[in-house]
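Example record

The entry below shows one chain as it appears in the dataset: sequence first, then structure tokens.
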Amino acid sequence: MNIGTVAIPSKLALAPMAGVTDAAFRRLCAELGAGYTCTELISSKALCYRDKKTFSLLRQFPGEHPAAVQIFGSDPACMAEAAQIAMEYTGADILDINMGCPMGKIVNNGDGA
């Protein structure tokens, strides 16, 4: 399977899960056969404000490829800046822009579905 030009070497992929898919969990899943990993949902505003805790969510384990970073937000300028920050910081292969999260804390800010 491919996502654009990125080849996914397995039929198993790890979905982003808030509060779950940190680097240690992603590494474990990759060791157990996940051919693709993704960070948890990351706020574009927090990246734009350079929040230290948020940057910890971007940490990748050594050799984590193919990998994606998932961001969410509603301000186009901030989303563009956050996308650049996330990709430069991680070296991820894919940027996943979440546009369908139904969680109240996301939707109430105009950031989700």
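Notes for this example: The longest strand covers residues 37-43. The chain has a mean pLDDT of 93.
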